Amino acid sequence: MSINLANSKKTREDKYPSRISDKPAIVERADPVVYSTWKSGSPLTQEQFRFYDRNGYLFLDQFFSGEEVADWRSELKKLQQHYGQREAEHVIREPGGTEVRSIFAVHEHNERFKELSANKRLTAIINELLGSQTYIHQSRINFKPGFTGKEFYWHSDFETWHVEDGMPSMRALSCSIALEDNFHFNGPLMVVPGSHKKFVSCVGQTPDDHFKQSLRRQEYGVPDDGSLARLVGEGGIETIVGGIGSIVLFDCNIMHGSNSNITPLPRSNVFMVYNSVENALEKPYSGQAPRPNYIAARG
Ligand code: 6CS
Ligand code: FE
Questions:
Q1: Residue 59, strand partner residues
Q2: Sign of the C-alpha dihedral, residues 235, 1, 276, 115?
Q3: In 31-65, which positions are buried (b, 16+ CB within 10 angstroms) versus exposed (e)?
Q4: Beta pairing class for 189-191 and 11-14
Q5: Ligand nearest to the CA of 214
Q6: Residue 157 Cβ contacting ligand 1 at under 6 Å
Q7: Cα 23 to chain center, whole Å?
Q8: Which of 136, 218, 270 best tests ligand 1's pocket when mutated (most atoms within 8 Å of CB)?
Q9: Which helix (H) or strand (E) holds 125?
Q10: Burial of 243 (0-12, 13-18, 19+ CB in 10 A)
């Protein structure tokens, strides 16, 4: 169902058209999931490698030690304190509230998180899965504070990164690192295993400056009920729970979301998004202006 977009000199093929029709559609993924073949000596076991390819995510318990995480946890508290009273464009507040929901570009503004983004044990795994060197497309802390942390509705990150940031292919992944315990009851990440192999073309037209709304509560670029029900019917729903220091790698196109947190226990995670250097952002497929650099890094 790909369509050709006329732009400047040459037409550009859009393998994943979305938000161009009032009818949803589901198309097959046209890109590999993993971009290399497993060999002994890989930082992942063959079983882990296969699990990620098949399911679109991989949970690694206690990947970072308590000492490694201690620094990031104290940075987290300092940032939450600092921006509790101060506005900044890369700081997003909860919908209908003032609590800090997300802080973007932490790999740029904070030395400790910059080091984390370049962690060798982590990037060795990620570069193998993506089959190339990688760079940070986006980083953020999602605080999901106790009592007030609102949901992140179901979505494919790639649908947004393709339409609004011009990411050409599915050759990116997110790494979420638990900086607080992620229990089954305080709004942990939920994924639909296997959904990364299907692209849901969403309905509706992207509003201008959509990110000013979508990062608080996303209403465009989200799947229709029928498509979501079909994906869940095929793959079910897995809830990713894990203690501080555990990580989950998830493919750019896996359908995921998380519920509101009505417990006293915050579910604060730091997310690093790695994009292949072979998959640099182009012009947004929506035809609109690119989103700011703190959301989508452009070289
Ligand atoms: O628009 C984005 O890039 C962000 N939105 C969501 C819901 N997940 C990915 C990313 O943080
Ligand atoms: Fe997301």
A1: 248
A2: negative
A3: bebbbeebeeebbbeeebbebbbebbbbbbeebbe
A4: unpaired
A5: 1
A6: yes
A7: 25
A8: 218
A9: helix 120-130
A10: middle
Instruction: Report the run of H or E that residue 248 belongs to, with start and end.
Output: strand 247-251
Q: Do 182 and 268 contact (CB within 8 A), yes or no?
A: no
Closest C-alpha to ligand 1, atom 8: 157
Could you report the per-residue pLDDT of 188-240, keeping only the tens digit for each?
A: 999 999 999 999 999 999 999 999 999 999 999 999 999 999 999 999 999 99
| pTM across the whole model | 0.95
Q: Which domains does the chain have, with CATH numbers?
A: 27-140+163-171+189-276 (2.60.120.620)
Please give the pLDDT value at position 148. 95
Q: Which two tokens stand for residue 44?
A: 């992942």
Query: In 3D, which of 6, 2, 34 has the Cα closest to residue 128?
Result: 34
Q: Of all atoms in ligand 1, which is nearest to the CA of residue 160? A: 1
